[in-house]
Amino acid sequence: MSGDLVDFSEFVQASLPGLLRYGHALTGNPHDAADLVQTVLEKIGSRWTQVQRKTGDPLAYVRRSMANAHISRWRRTKRENLVADLPETSAVAAVDPFEHEPLWQALRDLPPRQRAVIVLRYYEGLSEVEIAAALGVSQGTVKSQASKALASLRVKMTSVRTDAGGRDDG
Amino acid sequence: MSTPDEELDTELRRLFGDERLDVRPQAGAEHAILDGARRIRRRRSAVTAGAGALTAAMLVGGGLVFATAPSQNAAAPSAEELARAQASSASSVALPPQVPSVAPPSSVNMPPVPPPATPPSTAAGKPPAKGKPSAGATTPSKPQARSTGVLGPSGYGALKIGMSFDDAMTTGLLGATAKAPVGCATYDLAEGAAAVDSVRISATAGVNQIWATGAATPEGIGVGSTEEAVKKAYPSAAMNSSGQYVVPSAPGVTYELAVHSGTVNQFHLTSENQDCSAG
Known about the structure:
The complex is a heterodimer.
Chain A: H1 3-27, H2 30-46, H3 48-54, H4 58-77, H5 79-84, H6 89-93, H7 102-108, H8 112-123, H9 128-135, H10 139-163
Chain B: H1 4-17, E1 23-25, H2 29-45, H3 54-59, E2 66-68, H4 79-88, E3 155-156, E4 159-160, H5 165-170, E5 184-187, E6 196-202, E7 206-212, H6 227-233, E8 238-239, E9 244-250, E10 253-260, E11 263-271
Antiparallel strand pairs in B: 1-2, 3-4, 5-6, 6-7, 7-11, 8-9, 9-10, 10-11
């Protein structure tokens, strides 16, 4: 194994659990998370020396690549829309640890870029400026995407609450 | 008493801090990734070995073994919850690892390899080439100190977007041993990676992406340029949905510039005529 791959191997070992978790937050399910992490890491590993040279923080670079890959992948395939058309039986076989979480379900309906902004903000705790840099968009875009996302989450959560007869907090 | 906004903030933080988000990699996952990285590298450097299936192999994901965090599907979901999940769930709810995915992530698999019957003629309506590698000095502002060569509006030197693999070979810029792509493949340049990192060629669409390392646009924009410099050089640059500044450079061809921390960290020339997967 060449030297840089030894180094990459250590990096993968250390970062894999965190990246899978991050991918789960980003994509909404563990399968897509694993898929995304693998695809991105393989590409990055194949150019590890360059990646290290170009960026002082490979982990941030990987995360950013994941966010961007997720956004562009969705754009190209619209896969989620296809899956929504599947017959109902698929939902029965499926096990989603968050199926009792209305907020998680509401997140699924967000367009990927809005979701990415939410994940970067609430999962990674990044500022608007940092999110803009990570996704390569303007700060204004981050602001507007975030407010659109929060607005639709709020609406969904309110309707869930109404359906359920209200909650005792708030 | 908290405002609804604060409440949503709190809920989101709680959700993203939830341990159920954990996806446990199984032993061997690292090896699968390392193998994949090696495979990509090998195929890239030795495009020789009849590695036409290159991109296909590198993009077929799914080999990564993992297990979800502690299973807690104790209570069967009510019919109502299922209905709601079904209605609002855009992507499939997570299937247990053993269950074959209903809809394979087509983005990760290669598009079906087209029959090699139609050799890609060079793209119709190709503009005359303008940017020659040597023409880098016409920068309005100070050229990037580290720029090496010019990635012109329609290609790198003689290597043009839309050019078929065979035509690309005749430029001599690819390694002499490069083999034609099946589907899509990525090639290093024979000259090394100082200016251009790699070139992606599709069997049907020809050269469709050129990744720059040291090369800059004729306007002097490249990796290392500041975001300000990008905006100044290309006031009409628009952001695409992947978050890159996009500058139309020639008909059907764009510069794409990804900015990180105020600096361009990825720069490539891309054809809109794409049949290769993302990335």
